[in-house]
Amino acid sequence: MPVRGSVLVSGAGVAGTAAAYWLSRSGWDVVLVERAAALRTAGQNIDVRGAARTVVRRMGLEAHLLAAGTGEVGTRFVDRRGRTVAEFPAGTADTDGPTAEMEVLRGELVASLDALLRDRVAHRYGDSVRAVVQDAEGVDVEFAHGPPGRFDLLVVAEGFHSHTRRLVFGDVRLRDLGQYMAYGTVPRTAEDDHWWRWLPAGRGRAVMLRPDNVGTTRALLAFLGPPTGLERRAPREQVAHLREVFADVGWAAPRILGALAADHDDFYLDRVGQVHAPRWTHGRVALTGDAAYCPSPISGMGTSLALTGAYVLAGELTARQDHAAAWGAYEALMRPYVRRAQQLPPGGPRLVNPVSGVGVSVLHTVMRLAASRVGRAVTARLFAPPADSIALPAYP
Ligand SMILES: Cc1cc2nc3c(=O)[nH]c(=O)nc-3n(C[C@H](O)[C@H](O)[C@H](O)COP(=O)(O)OP(=O)(O)OC[C@H]3O[C@@H](n4cnc5c(N)ncnc54)[C@H](O)[C@@H]3O)c2cc1C
After folding, report:
1. Of 110, 251, 273, 335, which has the fewest Cβ atoms less than 10 A away?
2. ipTM of predicted assembly, 2 dp
3. 198 assigned to some structural domain
4. Is there a domain that residue 120 lies in?
């Protein structure tokens, strides 16, 4: 196959590995640079829905990812004693509820995508883009550590806080959704089951436990509040803060906080937000995945947008050959899809994280109604992620 041109992909997450796969498969010469010293396989349960299911099927990964799923059987809202208030079993349709049919650990997905790149894509770990200068024919890139290089195109897939996005596009609008989320992995206990258990704990807080397929349990602590810079503090200080915020919450909170205090390895805390970049391309540089259009973890669509966007970007580049035409087609196909994915239910995180005790009781009632047969039909139509709302082209 003739080489179409050279592409530097920056960021070996979901979007970066997927873009590298589709580009290399179509004859592009791809270098994948990742800031971390190795592939980052941390992360928790993520959903692959709708059009993204088609993308992983076209990669030959669907059966493997279904078999390597977390085994989550559905979502249960619980009270402070762990008793089920309402449950939403996982359906076979991707749009059925919080638990998608394809739920995998992020690490499993990224490792599976990366395994497709062996012998196709040059990896450069422990390095990052320091400067970008482009002209009509190409992009000159300086790296923090390695020698500089010239590429035909640069694809930025560095996630929410992308540095290269800032270098090329300046500051883009980040929509803060008023919530912190902390993730960690805790030892599994006999009491843990295969449900995603979700405690709305009042005062805008939530405690969640989710099953995995590697013998541990995934924990999530979320709380509403303004940005305080907590996300930039050391993990030890972040856990100490969480201990204060969740001090009076029972159920799984003490167990989670105890485990997080002992082990920070897989601990991660950040603000919940969205990326609203007015343009996704500039000259010979394109943004994809969270760096371009993060819809936030509460949308359930981040990974699906990353997989779909990488596929469309690479497909259009290959189908059109002229990168400017490809950028136009990428925006035209993906913008409406992204707009729908970024439209959260009214109130955003506030809707399912009531502040007062009365609010928690109201939420319990609403969840019970929503979990009924009629309720599920209505809520599926109102709140289901718009995972299928794109006509995915079949590229050669
Ligand atoms: C370690 C980790 C854990 C996560 N855990 C969860 C989770 O539990 N639940 C959830 O919903 N979402 C999680 N996410 C986010 C989720 O992966 C994304 O929302 C979604 O899959 C879109 O992926 P992405 O490839 O655009 O971004 P990401 O998956 O964030 O990948 C971005 C990649 O770019 C790399 N990178 C960043 N800056 C640079 C740079 N300057 N140069 C080179 N490389 C760079 C990062 O190290 C990372 O490998 C996690 C992301 C990471 C990186």
Report:
1. 335
2. 0.98
3. no
4. yes
